[in-house]
Design a protein that fits this description.
By secondary structure, the chain is α+β, with helices and mostly antiparallel strands. The chain has helices at residues 2-45, 49-73, 76-87, 115-120, 171-176, 189-196, 268-272, 327-331, and strands at 127-131, 141-146, 154-160, 178-179, 185-186, 201-208, 214-219, 222-224, 233-235, 238-240, 284-285, 305-306, 318-325. A hairpin with a 5-residue loop joins strand 6 (201-208) and strand 7 (214-219). Keywords: Coiled coil, Disulfide bond, Glycoprotein, Secreted, Signal.
Length: 332
């Protein structure tokens, strides 16, 4: 606005000067006209056509200048001021500053705690994956994830597949775990406790005989307590087609050849040649001796067996213990 006001004042002053010029030019034009009338014929007689032409040009320019001044004087001031005013840049409204959202910090990607997490992350092929157990997230644990057994996302905690791994081991070995997730494997009692100790898991035991016939047992809850209770077993209700050979071991502490925690007068691990939640002694012995071919001969029932299905004298071809979260555990 200040620049526009100054421009208008300048134009007003200029127009005033132009009005004075108009009077001067009018007088000059009248003087030139009189001279042309007096000397025009004389100039023509002497052949001074250039002088006459120049005077005519001066007179013409004077007329144009007077015409311009008359345009300005005859209401032209307002027109000029209007044109100048309209040519000035119009003040633009200040852009409205919208509050910018604060950048949100990127949250660390959640680490899979079990195979159901891995399944939800888009993996659908059975294989070895790494999970991160509660209170031990800095040390990933390799496990076999069964994505084929409905509904998938099963974390395998024990597997007997080919008899290449010795399962007749001491307490330290059963506590830490051993074997290869691709074959014979034991996750480890401490890892089982970290995985299931807060509850919210179910157990499925799948088995196969040497004729290719399969069966399963499922328990709607499964929990392994801490070492202070000797990794005591807590089981829920059974359903399946193999017969229930696990409930008899419910609430039992774990026993190995060097840590006898079963209620039997002797050490069941010594008779059964493995480590298990022995009662007195076993209806199932999934960590026993792997005998190829099925039926075996031994002083004791020390094979890999599920008594309610093929009996204690039949060594199974494959066995797999696997857990899966239930309820809220399955959804988080």
């Amino acid at each position: 606005m200040e620049n526009q006001t100054a421009t208008i004042a300048t134009l007003t002053k200029l127009v005033g000067g132009l009005s004075r010029d108009k009077d001067d030019l009018t007088r000059q034009l009248q003087d030139v006209t009189r001279r042309m009338k007096k000397g025009g014929r004389h100039g023509d007689r002497h052949g001074d056509r250039g002088t006459g032409t120049r005077r005519a040009q001066v007179a013409s320019e004077a007329v144009v200048r007077i015409g311009d001044i008359e345009d300005v004087d005859d209401g032209g001031v307002e027109a000029v001021i209007k044109r100048v005013t309209e040519s000035q840049p119009k003040p633009q409204p200040k852009p409205e500053l919208k509050p910018q959202p604060k950048p949100q910090p990127k949250l660390p990607k959640a680490k899979p705690r079990h195979c159901a997490d891995i399944q939800r992350g888009g993996k659908s092929t059975s294989g070895v994956y790494r999970i991160y157990l509660p209170d031990h997230e800095d040390a990933p644990v390799p496990v076999w994830c069964d994505m084929d057994t409905d509904p998938g996302g099963w974390t395998v905690i024990q597997k007997r597949a080919n008899g290449t791994v010795n399962f007749y081991r001491n307490w330290a070995a059963y506590r830490a775990g051993f074997g290869d997730p691709r074959g014979d494997f034991w996750l480890g009692l401490e890892n089982m406790h970290r995985l299931t100790g807060r509850g919210g898991y179910k157990l499925q035991v799948s088995m196969e005989d040497w004729n290719g016939i399969v069966a399963y047992a499922e328990y709607n809850s499964f929990k392994i307590e801490g070492e202070e209770s000797k990794y005591r077993l807590r089981l829920g209700k059974y359903h399946g087609n193999s017969g229930d050979a696990m409930t008899w071991h419910n609430n039992m502490a774990f026993t190995t050849k060097d840590s006898d925690n079963d209620p039997f007068i002797g050490n069941c691990a010594g008779y059964q040649r493995g480590g298990w939640w022995y009662n007195a002694c076993a209806h199932s012995n999934l960590n026993g001796i792997y005998y190829p071919g099925g039926y075996y001969s031994s002083r004791y029932q020390d094979a890999v067996y599920w008594a309610e299905w093929r009996g204690g004298s039949y060594s199974l071809k494959t066995v797999m213990m696997k857990v899966r979260p239930t309820g809220n555990q399955a959804l988080t």
